[in-house]
Specification:
Length: 328
């Protein structure tokens, strides 16, 4: 099987949970790529470099990294009075990561809201992340008074002006994820990204400031949650991969489009994930691909290690099947 221009299955590493055993777990599944989510306590120069070195000494490649507390910070996205302080902390981490050779960081307030984790007909008795949009719309506002979509985009432009030159200088690109669920407005503030046109708008805006730096976390889960309201997942994926904008793929399936859905195993949702894999192989997508969310389990039912092992194994099975089919 040809190995040129191949995508890289990856799993996540939390900075506070880097152990020899966890790194061995990744290696024994032949998952040689990862992303690193840094805690606040471990986002300084010394610790970031120490943790990256340890992961790399185990033979793993770090594709992307960030600190979700910083890049999702509401002061930045709602334009609160202390935003410059948070943007500077966020930029400082990107400088550290970029200078340490991590090619992709994160940007944007990709909130994740849900109704809860429930066992239903889609989960085989496991607890799956469930959204009932009517319930989400009852959540109390985070922004008070609520802000509008135009205002949110102005805050995003302000962030881009500060963030893109720093990322470029550090040799880094920044990946943007949709709001999850991808619905225009809830919890008192609008979603920046709730369909594929929002991504096109963000890329146009970013390219006026620093061309080519902004990219996409192509979250198949969010695309499928939004359904036709979000866009045609296969044509959007082809378009954004061809344009060189997809920096990572979140490979995840759901029971149905909004207003209500439950996250499922890749083989159980309403979409045929093999179709997505074929597009990635046909377009020679060569960045990271990640299973994203898994069922909530505990140690008695295998825990996260089992859930992610299953998900990444299934993903690699589809990847190899698609490569065999298309590349021969
Ligand atoms: Mn995602």
């Amino acid at each position: 099987m040809s190995s040129e221009a191949s995508m890289n299955p990856q799993l996540g590493v939390r900075s506070e949970a880097v152990t020899d055993e966890y790194l061995q777990y990744l290696k024994q599944m032949n998952v040689m790529h990862c992303f690193v989510m840094f805690s606040n306590e471990q986002s300084d120069y010394e610790q970031v470099n120490r943790i990256l070195d340890r992961i790399r000494r185990a033979g793993l490649t770090v594709d992307d990294a960030g600190n979700s507390f910083l890049y999702k910070h509401l002061s930045i996205h709602l334009g609160l009075s202390d935003r410059d302080r948070w943007i500077e902390k966020y930029n400082e981490l990107n400088r550290i990561l970029g200078n340490a050779g991590v090619p992709v960081g994160y940007i944007g307030n990709s909130r994740v809201s849900h109704t809860g984790y429930f066992a239903d007909q889609y989960t085989h008795g496991a607890l799956g992340r469930t959204v009932r949009m009517e319930e989400i719309l009852q959540h109390p506002p985070v922004a008070d008074p609520p802000i509008g979509e135009e205002e949110l985009w102005e805050h995003f432009r302000y962030l881009l002006r500060a963030a893109l030159p720093v990322a470029k200088e550090a040799g880094m690109r920044l990946a943007l994820h949709p709001s999850d669920p991808p619905y225009p407005m809830y919890e008192g503030y609008p979603s920046l990204i709730y369909n594929s046109d929002c991504f096109r708008k963000a890329i146009r805006m970013a390219d006026e400031i620093e061309p080519g730096v902004l990219g996409i976390k192509f979250c198949c889960g969010c695309w499928l949650e939004g359904g036709r309201q979000f866009g045609d997942i296969l044509t959007d994926l082809r378009e954004f991969v061809r344009a060189g904008r997809v920096l990572t793929v979140h490979f995840r399936n759901v029971s149905s489009p909004l207003p209500d859905f439950t996250e499922t195993l890749a083989e159980d949702g309403y979409f045929d994930m093999m179709k997505i894999m074929r597009v990635l192989v046909e377009e020679k997508y060569d960045h990271a691909i990640y299973p994203d969310h898994v069922f909530r389990t505990d140690s008695r039912t295998g825990g996260d290690l089992a859930a992610f092992a299953y998900a990444v194994g299934y993903l690699k099975g589809l990847m190899n099947a698609a490569r065999s089919e298309i590349e021969g």
